[in-house]
Amino acid sequence: MAALLLSLATLAHAGTYVWKITDPDPTKSTQSPTYSGGNFHCTFGGGVSYNERYGQRGLLGADGYGNGNNEGDYADCSGMITTTYTWHAGPGQTVATDPLPLYVIVMEKCHVRAYGPSATAAPVVGICDTGLGVSSALAQSKLPSGVTFGSAEWTTTRYTVATGGQTVTLTCTPRAQCSTPSAYASLLYTPAITPITVRLDGTTKDTAGSDNILVGQGCTAYIQVRSLPSGTITFSNFNWGVSGQIVKNFVTGFLQASPPAYPYGHVNYLTSTDATGPSLHWYWSQGLYIGANNQVTCSAVVSVNGTAIGAVTANRGVAVYDPSYLASNMPGGCQIIGQGTSGVSLNSDMEWTAQALTPLFFTARFGNPGVIYYTQLCSLNRDLGSTIPFGKDISTVTNGYVLDTELIYSTINTPGGTWWADGASQAASGDVPSIGLDLKSAVTQQDGFKTFLMYVPPGTDSMAVPLHELDWNINCNAHLLLLSGGQWSPHPPGTIGVTADLYFNVSPPNWPVWNDVYVGSGP
Fold this sequence. Notes:
It is a single chain. This protein is mostly beta strands. The chain has one helix spanning 360-366, and strands spanning 4-5, 18-21, 36-43, 49-50, 71-88, 103-117, 125-129, 135-137, 139-142, 148-163, 167-172, 175-201, 204-205, 211-214, 218-225, 233-242, 246-247, 249-253, 264-268, 279-284, 292-304, 307-321, 324-337, 345-357, 371-379, 381-386, 394-397, 402-404, 420-421, 427-431, 434-436, 440-456, 465-481, 487-490, 498-504, 517-518. The strands form five sheets. Strands 2, 3, 4, 5, 6, 7, 8, 9, 10, 11, 12, 15, 17 and 20 form a 14-stranded antiparallel β-sheet that branches. Strands 25, 26, 27, 28, 29, 32, 33, 34, 35 and 36 form a ten-stranded mixed β-sheet that branches. A hairpin with an 8-residue loop joins strand 32 (440-456) and strand 33 (465-481).
């Protein structure tokens, strides 16, 4: 898979965890990185030895550690260097919100050097070992005076992946040693680490730096490092995971320029291909008014300067919010209105009210609340018999659920509909499905309706998500009694000819999905 090249100059950001090197010496500030555990000394002909530790500032705030410019009968820089990094709150933070990193990239750089002339023609004894896998004895050469001169010098940079956590401890045992009069030995070991993290775009940060998002707001994730010197970092072999109810998108559209409008509405889910890309974009469709704790995770192979150094995983938590909402119905029942053979219709009156409230934390950021509206699907199965001899019977069948007269309860490119800003008083809408029975002798009706309360959060990358689903049905089987004054009667006699059934769908609601639209005369 193609590697993802990260621009290190743009990845560092304030308000997050940072690494600090903690010195065991209580007299030193933890703000000034230092090292511990080294054993560095030079012994001169007079038998005097001393340890030297100097504070050369290295990469990412680390110190160089070693000694140099020391000449004597014996020069030795050796011992174990232990460096402990602790995960702290970043600048200006009292509470750090980034999760403990699961993995970190470690860069270790070590320069070792030793040399000196022999008092005789005997070889000069010594060794240079970076502690990072490169070592050698001193190379021998002849001086013009005929004595032997021994020397070695190495600089090694090594990149590795280490397990993260609250603390990360590195150890290295370099050595630069030479045994001869006028010997010289020095080393400089400089480590640096950087956490591997997940970055989220589209979320709203709170004062502690935590990620928050509303259902229906787009979120994009990347795996990244903060910074790392002297290395080009790339990632490959991505594998993303997101907890909670998520979708790729919800789309409505036209198959032709003229009505009927909106002949399709589909919800698309993330595929395995989406989950293996260098970034991932999605929408949560369900959360909690108090925030649902969901996780975004990515596993990948990390490479430095084109060489893979290991498999890593990073994660980040997100609080996903629903708006609070109220939804109720007022069914008016079904009835046949009018008698005789003129002006007769079958009506079913259904009304709804709704109200939603986006958490103020989000409305303060975006400057406006979300909106709500209703979308309705219908499944019609109707047969009407004619009273006129040789007249035309009418049959209407949708063969499943279709969009009911465009997006009938909204203003998405549909004149006459209504958006309701959330936080306002309860908004009302409804439907009166009716069938004209003039010059008809019989009616059979088995209609189903799915009415969805939809919510669109604020923000430019936002889409509608369903909050509530109301399912209801109309069932009718009746005929006209011409010999009884043109009265309508249930069929067969003695049965309830017109009924209405109503129920709410379980939470979470399904999505309104359709492939056609009913515009009053059949799909």
